[in-house]
Amino acid sequence: MNFKPIKPKKISTQIAEQIRSSILAGEFTPGEKLPPERELAEMFGVSRPSVREALNILAAAGLVESYQGGGTIVKSLMDAASGPPLSEIIKVEQERALDVIEVRKCMEAWTAYYAAQRALPDDIRKLEGIVWNMEANLNGLKPSEDLDANFHIIIARSTHNVVWLHLMQTIFEAMKEFQRSVWRAVYLTEDDHRMLFVHHKAIFEAIRDKDCERARNAMLSHLTFAEKRSSIYVNQSRQDR
Prior knowledge:
By secondary structure, the chain is mainly alpha-helical. It is built from 10 helices and 2 strands. A hairpin with a 3-residue loop joins strand 1 (about 65) and strand 2 (about 70-75). The longest helix is centred in the C-terminal third of the chain and has 29 residues, at about 210-240.
């Protein structure tokens, strides 16, 4: 028999493994801050140097990035090692945003499908809360672009597939400025805002009812509408140059 001696794991390694598991389970999303070192030390019942070493392990693995005075941020699993980020490409060539929306139509139709299959009661409550707030914003035509983005991220989280979540978070971060511009330039009337609310309500209700096909079709219909409106914005911007 060739048994190997059991080696106790370093405290920092055990901390890193727990945080890593939380990240891969989708409990922390890309761009989200981890608790400060002091809080983590209290949570784990260890010293701050052990926590710091654990964060260095995670940083070396490309899962987090620490900033002087800015805490530790969870990185996307989809971060590119080289080349310009997608957000910069979209700034230079707005037409590329339409390419991204085309990809979103394929991705998010299936994200909604799996969310309808797997969403937990807490996921449903979060989606419902967003829909309620969107309806409330119809009074006075208050903008709902942040609610809109969060709605799609919560759907990705509701698949309980960390790859879906990180893909969606990466795309939304890249598209954030473009989407804000579209909201402010194209969705101007009460009918526009109500149409977007109706779309999101239909997606939510299909997911709540666990109707996978209806959820997929509702999402596809919504993003096809968004694609048309985004095309109008891009064409207008091109003419204004």
